[in-house]
Amino acid sequence: MIDGIVKPGFERVAEAFEMNFAAGGEDGASVCLTQGGETVVDLWGGSFERDTVSIVFSATKGATALCAHVLASRGKLDLEAPVVELWPEFGQHGKERVTTRMMLDHSSAVPALRAKVEGAAIYDWDHMTGRLAAEEPFWAPGTRNGYHGMTFGWTVGEMVCRASGKSLGAFFQDEIARPLGLDFWIGLPAEIEPRVAPVIAYRYKREEAVTPFMLDLAADKQSIPALFFFNGGAWAKGGANTRAGHAAEIGAANGVTNARGLAGMYAPLAQGGGTLVDAATLSRMGEVSMATHDDATLRIPTRFAMGFMKSMDNRRRAIGPKVFGEDVDSVIMGSAAFGHVGAGGSLGFADPVAGLSFGYTMNRMGPGLLMNARGQALVDAAYLSLGYTNKDGGVWVR
Q1: pLDDT at position 227, please?
Q2: 397 inside domain
Q3: CATH of the domain at 75
Q4: Residue-number span of the structural domain to which 68 is assigned
């Protein structure tokens, strides 16, 4: 049922992985860790084979953000400059001073589109970037943040395109995935399609729809949460299990990979940056850029670096864990770690202090907005294996 490798000292990761199948409802999954540049865990199980890949939803944002930082490290993209220097059309309705940093940390004020996205239009890059350029901001840009759940892929992605002269998917493949030997695509080639595991959605119970995010979905169809969640055209109607949904380039949501791909992408970042970014860029990538007690989209406290999530400990929030019977609105890593979760619970991150990179993918989605018990158990096992002792303060410490 479970296959792969586990180096001595990391057996508890394998034990947690096995428990996810035995008691956590896992269907198919993979987990991979590198430490000190060496692969120490590479496991897959259930319906997954060694080369199975799957949609990782918002874990894709880490790949898109990395593209921007690679360009910044090469002097091709100034993250602090006004976006209009490369994308003049974006400077409408008070967005003239938006920077790429604001796009990366979810403060650029276009977390959704107000007018309906029709059908397959969401797969049309020029249509979506044109719509975002013309969109009025939902708040004064840079003054607060709200998770740009889908729009991040086109805002940050368009800056990658304009700075590199390539599409987002092509740049990622040419400059990151292929050089690192990763099975990871933003825009999946047709020949890989037979290897993709279908997504199994989580079905929410009526009694679970009492979080602020869920209440906003039900109460106001023009709220930011509702526009983010429902106004996704064909993607919002099962696109993650379609060829069209896999083939498009949606830099916020439709990356296809496995745990080996996620851990492999973050591995150089856990070891000084490798050939991807210089030391100054790497240090900037892990710093908190924007944080809030009430994210305008997710309606929970959030902490973001530029394009990456930082450790978020919402375990003592009044609403959330009690509803689902587990903690589902947190992701707890080391204080230096940065990465990104994906809907349903996938995760990839780097921890430069621990020398750790981590990847977890699955096809049966779990509840909540961030991690659920399956993924967090694997993260916990990874840190415990490295001699870390507790996460009581909201980050793993030795």
Answers
A1: 98
A2: no
A3: 3.40.710.10
A4: 2-385
pTM score, two decimals?
Answer: 0.98
Question: What's the average model confidence in pLDDT over 161-169?
Answer: 98
**What pLDDT, in 10s, does the model give residues 263-286?**
999 999 999 999 999 999 999 999
Asked whether residue 393 is assigned to any structural domain, the reply reads no
- Assigned domain for 181 exists: yes
> Which has the minimum average pLDDT: 45-54, 90-99, 157-166, 323-332?
323-332
Residue 233 · residue 119 · CB < 8 Å: yes
Judge whether 392 lies within some domain.
no
Is residue 6 within 8 A of residue 44, CB to CB? The reply is no
Q: How many domains does the chain have?
A: 1
